[in-house]
Amino acid sequence: MELITENKEEELLNALENAKESLLVVTPFVTIDGIKPFLLIKKEKDIEITFITREPGVDWVTGATEYEAISKLSAEGCKVLVLEYLQSNLFLFDNKTLYVGDYFAAKNGFGLPINEDQGILTKSQIDEQQAKRLQHYYTDNPQIKSISSYRGAEKNLTKLREKYDDLGKVIEDITFSFLKPQEQNLIENSFLKRLSEERIINQYQVFEVDDLKDTYLIDAKYVIKLLEPDEGNKDHAIFTFTNEIAKKISSREIHGLVLFLDSDREYICLPGPFIKDKVMKKSYQTVTSNWQLQIYREDKELILFLVNGPKNFCKLPIGQYEGGLHFRLKGIKL
Questions:
Q1: Over the chain, what HEC string results?
Q2: pLDDT tens string 97-117
Q3: Same structural domain for residues 215 and 130?
Q4: What pLDDT does 176 receive?
Q5: 216 occurs within a structural domain
Q6: Interval 262-275 mean pLDDT
Q7: Which domain holds residue 306?
């Protein structure tokens, strides 16, 4: 057995991408956002995917699994079974590689907590007989149900949402209040306060990432780092992107970098995947192991310019990340 304590989400995503024949997911938590990587693999490879989860409900009120999520999985050719009071969290790839831990198919794919150090993941290699025994342990349970038992639930869910439209927001506020470890973590940041007033975000709070300053937790899901320019203005601003910040983006402790071009009214939010793929290259690092980011407009297009000497430079269009908060490569807003 292998004990995995770091880069756990990356480990699971790699295993998913390398799956060749089958995948068994046993988890109480399945959401519409969390199933995206599984549907992508299903479309690319058409492998056999089975989900075993709890009975669907309205988020944390009547259950942890979203009906829309398991319905979508079923429609895309995945087998979905429902087992009341399910507690297990495990992934079985190709009937031989087994992961067990505190991780599940929730809002960000595998539902890893923002601070990954809070959980442990184990990896084991099992034989065909053990794989069959594991599957039958769940599928032979007399309480297990097919998703067909919930056909027609969409209409009831729609009626409930119309009747209790404000209930979800109340529960969200209550849940978020428990995430505030200390009262001093509440701070009136003018930029985030405005985003909240404009309903771009719902909640925000200070979120400590080692010794980095100006890091915030957004909607109990994403961590951002705010960065002021070293010099310049909205037409040509220069920022220092430190190696320390790069490490936190690489480990997914920070999900986006907000750069203020002039004031908090003009800003861009570069998503972590974009920074890792396009910015964090050794050839662009300065002698201090940092990166110098120059942002300017060229023919009305917003450009990110990276340079370290006459031969090491690149120009990247980043207009798609201007305004709003973005955490995916195509600039999907929060």
A1: CEEECCCHHHHHHHHHHHCCCEEEEECCCCCCCCCHHHHHHHHHHCCEEEEEECCECCCCCCCCECHHHHHHHHHCCCEEEECCCCCCCEEEECCCEEEEECCCCCCCCCCCCCCHHHCCEEEEECCHHHHHHHHHHHHCCCCCEEHHHHCCHHHHHHHHHHHCCCHHHHHHHHHHHCCCCCHHHCCCCHHHHHHHHCCCCCCEEECCECCECCEEEECCCEEEEEECCCEEECCEEEEEECHHHHHHHHCCCCCEEEEECCCCCCEEEEEHHHHHHHHCCHHHECCCCCEEEEEEEECCEEEEEEECCCCCEEEEECHHHECCCECCCCCCEC
A2: 999 986 554 444 554 444 444
A3: no
A4: 53
A5: yes
A6: 83
A7: 180-321
Regarding whether 186 and 299 lie in a shared domain, the answer is yes
CATH number of residue 103's parent domain: 3.30.870.10
Last residue of one domain, picked from the residues 138, 163, 188: 163
| pLDDT of the residue at 113 | 46
pLDDT at 260 over 50: yes
* Residue with tokens 């009120």, as numbered in its chain: 61
| Closest alpha carbon to 137 in 186, 203, 86, 79 | 86
Output the six-digit token pair for 132: 């069959």
Separation CA 253–CA 211 (nearest Å): 13
- Answer yes or no: do 190 and 146 share one domain: no
- The verdict on 130 and 223 lying in the same domain is no
Strands 231-233 and 236-241: antiparallel
Number of domains the chain contains: 2
Q: What are the phi and psi torsion angles at 140 (to 5°)?
A: -90, 0
**Nearest-5° angle of CA 115, CA 117, CA 122?**
125
